[in-house]
Specification:
single chain; alpha/beta; Rossmann fold; 3 domains; six-stranded parallel beta sheet; 13% strand
Amino acid sequence: MSGPRVGFVGMSHLGLVSAAAAAAKGFPSLGFDSDADLVRRLAERDLPVREPGLDDLIAANAARLRFTSAPADLAGCDVVYVSADVPTDAGGRSDLSRIGALCRLALDNLAAHASLVVLSQVPPGFTRDLPCPPGRLFYQVETLIFGRAVERAMHPERIIVGCAEPAAPLPTAYADVLAAFACPVLPMRYESAELAKISINCCLVATISTANTLAELCERIGADWSEIAPALRLDRRIGRHAYLSPGLGLAGGNLERDLATVERLAQAHGADASVVAAWSRHSAHRKGWAARTLRTEVLDANPDAAVAVLGLAYKENTHSTKNAPALALIEELRGHRIRVYDPVVPAAAAGDRVEAAGSALAAAEGADAVVLMTAWDAFRAIDPADLAGAMRGRTLLDPWRLIEPSAALAAGLDYITLGAPPQRAARED
């Protein structure tokens, strides 16, 4: 195929593999680097990196892949990627000086119609600050893994794209390039895309840390991690159905018990499980989210405010309240006016400091704030307009996103959920 001309600025590992992949997908591709000696070596197929399959990929697509050290050549491209690897110091801090310089060089030589795509990993806020028209500026999450770089570049699971306007269509040339990789494209705001890469790596760190912690424990107590790992790989929750939704800390008792067991065993056998202790501390911190938010949004300014707590069970479809976030919230709000309702759990489970209600709307009657603490399906069916009509205030905390945010805003409610900034309803002056 032929189509958009694609340029890559920076011929380190990431840029070289990415340029070769674009050429392999049929696009005329240009690899730029200011190091003329490196460009000469690349033209002679003397690659500066060792990567399985890369030599063959470049050789097979040599007719569509050209290397240059002349910045003006970038003006002939429809899409230009800034694709240099980002060096880090011993403390893990990134040196963005070269990436910044390469972005400026690309912008200075970018054609008026072309798109600039930052492929190098940068921190949240970097892309938005670049002096490029928003409709032509993008951030794309790189998927480079040493030793599997060609496979990952040619067959990505998904492509994450940071945009100024995620709902707007991508420029035709850029969209054509992405379409050639035949995978889902996930547009999102710049900062979300930049943080997505970090989030992916944090999840990987958690998995690696878990395996390392438990494998060391296996060494101390006579278990064999190679026997345990296959069982984990067959667990749907750890495989493709992994937990990725933010929550209000661990609850239900089983997970907390197992973490405590690991800590005790590690202490008894001289292993290090400090990461597990950190997870437990973080869980306790997350349980306080609703209370902290209510204080900031309502209670600090109005200590006499009434709060409706909808849901007492630690999760939907159970009557258990073991370590339930709702009970932790009620304890945190001791001394404030609280009315509660749960479709299954009686209000008595929350103690004698709360007022029981017979329905969700009855609990919300006259409330200054409503908090959805359990993800019951019945709460998903609540009409935000009915909720707003029952309430005195306008604050809705919905950590599980049970109610559509736009519907809540349209009803005049301020909508607050986990993992996103508060959304404020328009107010008449």
